[in-house]
Please model this.
Amino acid sequence: MCAKDCLGGDDLDEGFYAALVARHSSDGVVISGPDRTALWVNTAFSAQTGYALADIQGKEPGSLLQGPDTDPDAARAIALACSQRREVRLDILNYMRDGTPFWVDLKVTPVYDAAGLHTHFISTMRDISERKALEDQNEEMRHSEAMRQSERQLLALTSEWLYSAKSFEELLMVVRRAMHTLIPEADGALYIYGPQRATLDLVASWGTIPEFPEHILPDDCWALRRGRAYAFGLKPIQFPCDHVHKKDTPYFCLPIIAHGETIGLMHIIFDGFEEDGMMRHMRAEVLSNRWDISLICAEQISLAVANVRLRHELQERSVRDPLTGLWNRRWFGEQATRELTIAEREGTDMSLIAIDVDHFKQFNDQFGHDAGDLVLREVAGLMQTLGNEQVFPCRLGGEEFTLLCTQTPVAPAVEIAETLRKRVAGLQLSAGGAPLPTVTISCGVASFAQDGRTLDLLMKVSDRALYKAKQSGRNRTMTSAALVDDDGA
Model:
């Protein structure tokens, strides 16, 4: 017997088939009147939503199905289409009777009778929660990849700036800006070992700048004691460092290493990431990501510090006199030219003090070159102890020295020269167990702009004043005024 005979043969009509579809369709169906109030729902709708016909009959479906996270623009689009009696189809977040959210592909179609009168709305809902979950997962993956790409670009940019720093001060500036940008939710500090390596001294901090201690002891930090980076807040067994005040706050301690030597520590603290301040899974995910970034940053900072140190050493060798440690002729020429430009532009003072060791040749001839070198080093040492940040001691060659005195007019420059001259005269030196003769110096002073506006002219005037001091008996200081008297005579 065929299916048609079983179901009634030719008496089957469209209504029977429609009812069969409505009963067994997996899509929820709601039939509403022209006023949008529900008249009938199928079995799939009740299974989807938990609402029976008695729950929704006479009510607008959206009033029950839409919830707090339903897109209001989508709800308005449905209302507008229905008011204009046109079909609308969109994805919308609905809520089951028990409050569970689920996504549906909703299609609302107006129905007209043979006379063209609007009689009903038919709404069909297909559950697309799995599809939406997959889309959200893909979107999250795209977002995560975009964040990783952005982080990689920032790290590359940070590396470029770090390696371009020509001084330690510039390096610290880059570290502050880069770390605040790469890990914006954290505060941080950079410590460097002091000269005696007894403490680590705070040299930079960033973020909201909490009260980081100015100095910490090496034994107070687990990272320094263990010789490797330490993350507090990521492991089941952990102990806080003694230099950290908030014992429950997650933080990282990362040693900074240059040329194989630990020279400092980077400390990064996540205030507000305590156990009760953020959901555990979010906290762990964020900290894990920031840990990876911090390790890379610590390595780059270490390499940059080593690079700056090497560059500084090479620069120092190129501009320092190897015997005395004073600035050499090359540095003097560049710096004096720069200071003259500033003095000309801002109308400030500048002086040069030309210095020569009296009877220097006798030290070499009578006591040997070692004795001569000793005299030069001792005079240079006294020049470095003048204690004036505006005075730059230089050795131009042989026994010839110069003091570059910025923002210093002639009278204070003469006082500086006289102070140095008296200190040199008080030296008591010996070589090979034998005392050396008293060391004295002669000085000539020239000042901008009364003695000249160019470096060449100032050097000539200071040299002439120096020569005048030697002619006058040595162990004295002369200025350009003595030259004027001579010229006038």
User: Anything to note?
Assistant: The two ends are 147 Å apart (CA to CA).
